[in-house]
Amino acid sequence: MMKMKRTVPILRIFDEEKAREFYFDFLDFKCDWEHRYEPTMPLYMQISNGDCILHLSEHHGDCSPGSAIRVEVEDAKELQEQLLAKAYKFARPGFSDEWNEVCVTDPFGNRIHFYTTKE
Fold first, then answer.
1. Are strands 111-115 and 68-72 parallel, antiparallel or unpaired?
2. H-type helices in the chain, by residue range?
3. Where is the VOC domain (predicted)?
4. 62: Cβ–Cβ under 8 A, 6 or more apart, which residues?
5. Domain boundaries along the sequence of the chain
6. Band of the pLDDT at 65, cuts 50, 70, 90?
7. Secondary structure (3-state) at 62
8. CB-CB contact of 58 with 42 (8 Å)
9. Which one of 43, 56, 64, 70 is most buried, by most CB atoms within 10 A?
10. What's the whole-model pTM score?
């Protein structure tokens, strides 16, 4: 059987400026590349932070808004504290001791669960 490799989720976005503010300024992702078929066409871009790679798309047929993904991080509690220190006006993420995770919702209704595996 063929071995599968990396998963790259595609998340729907509707506003490039809000997406950049949330993913770049708040979550510290960086843009790896972006693509448009023409200057007035919807944006499709790849962003990353460490080993986490996401695709963000303004194309209506690529995916549904309101998706949820889980991203493993080294220390979810520390991430939550770093995010709170940024005082981003649209999110004050809490921490779940039960799931050892911090969940944030982007401006488009997509939920990202950052978790640390309990050992």
1. parallel
2. 16-20, 76-85
3. 3-117
4. 10, 12, 44
5. 10-115
6. confident
7. coil
8. yes
9. 56
10. 0.93
Q: Which fold has domain 10-115?
A: 2,3-Dihydroxybiphenyl 1,2-Dioxygenase; domain 1 (3.10.180)
Token digits of residue 65: 């808004």
Q: What gap in Å lies between CA 13 and CA 8, rounded to an integer?
A: 16
Evaluate whether 53 touches 5 at the Cβ level (below 8 Å).
Answer: no
Tokens describing residue 26: 């708040």
Q: Based on the number of CB atoms within 10 Å of its own CB, is 46 exposed (0-12), middle (13-18) or buried (19 or more)?
A: middle
pLDDT in tens, 36-57: 999 999 999 999 999 999 999 9
Percent of the chain with pLDDT over 70: 99
| Residue 31 token pair | 């843009």
- In the structure encoding, which two tokens stand for residue 52, read together? 């986490």
